[in-house]
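Quick question, first post here. What does this chain look like in 3D?
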Amino acid sequence: MSKAIIMNSGDNVATLLNEIKTNEEVNIVSTKTEVVKKLKAKQDIHMGHKISIVDIKKGEPVRKFGEPFGLAIKEIETGEHVHVHNVISNIGKAK
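> Answer (accepted):
Ran it through. Tokens below.
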């Protein structure tokens, strides 16, 4: 079973702990290794990349570690790869 870790309960993405294939079931685990959600991957995603754990609307913040690191530039469905093709980063920009 594939796994991804969520770092904060306010996150809307999780980081993959191994590579996954399209339609593969993914267990989303907390930092205490408890399974908090199960979902199916919408596409192949490399280890270390992010997967959406909820639907994210265009313009909404994308959060990891409880903090926004970018904005969705298009709709992102649960189970989709979250990367530069659908998020614009705000890392390093003044708040």
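Residues 69 and 90 are 5 Å apart (CA to CA).
Residues 2-89 form a domain with the Archaeosine Trna-guanine Transglycosylase; Chain: A, domain 4 fold (CATH 2.30.130.110).
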